[in-house]
Amino acid sequence: AAAMPTINLALTGKTITVSGQTTSGAVNIVSTLTGAKQAEPTLFLLKPGASFAQAFAAAASHNGDPNYLDPYGSIVFDANATPGTSTAQTVLAPGNYVALDTESNNPNNWPHTQFTVTNNPAPAALPAAAATVTAIDFNFRGPSVLHDGALTRFENGGFLVHMVVGIRAKNRKSARKIVSLLKAGKDNKAQRSATGLAFFAGPLSSGGLQQLTLNAAPGWYVLACFMDTQDGREHTQLGMERIIKIVK
Q: Is the pLDDT of residue 208 over 70?
């Protein structure tokens, strides 16, 4: 990872700035958050000739559905940032990007800035991950056991936009109960049965990926995707849950 270029994202909750080696290929994304309790650094790759205003308007006109971004670009990275510095890895193609902090519930308040990733004639490759979790339409593929502290990859292998969230459960029995409640659309009851939450990958367009050193308390988890279908159902209601165990 040390050989990969590093792109720095500085976030304050009200602004986001980009610096570092903005070249294509595998990169380290180092997010530094000050002045806020939480941030969600996101990278959006614009298609040639498309503008951020067009993409934003398309999603806004469909109740914020990120699947309507597709004609204008793709979400290639979406991570979680807490105060201080956090690091994740991804692969960037050459092109024009928008960096955003999508933590706020109001998209009109999302800090954003544009930058360009230049072509690297000798792009770096991502280091091999110890495990890979893949979101598909409508399930998760990957090992049933993940290791805390191990380099872990999360990717979208489906056609639709997906996220990977880990809901911590008291035990395996509780995890099965959470799965049943999510499939029934009873998110509030599922939340009451949870003992914690881990954010592994935010909404990613098809082909989006990121990998990071797993930092989650050992225990039982339910992987879930809470994106909505066009008819208003969450992907969890279509079977996007998977019980896993995180161990040391």
A: yes
Phi, psi of 73 (to 5 degrees): 160, -165
Give CA–CA dist 167/243, Å, rounded: 9
Q: Which amino acid is at 131?
A: A
- Integer Cα distance of 214 and 235 in angstroms: 24
pTM given for the model: 0.93
Alpha helix segments (H runs only) across the chain = 52-60, 172-183, 187-193
Look-up of token digits 């570092």: 20
For the residues 199-214, what does the mean pLDDT come to? Answer: 96
Q: Check whether 1 has a pLDDT greater than 50.
A: no
d(CA 169, CA 185): 18
Please give the helix or strand (H or E) that residue 244 lies within, else none.
Answer: strand 241-247
- Which residue carries 């999508």 as its tokens? 102
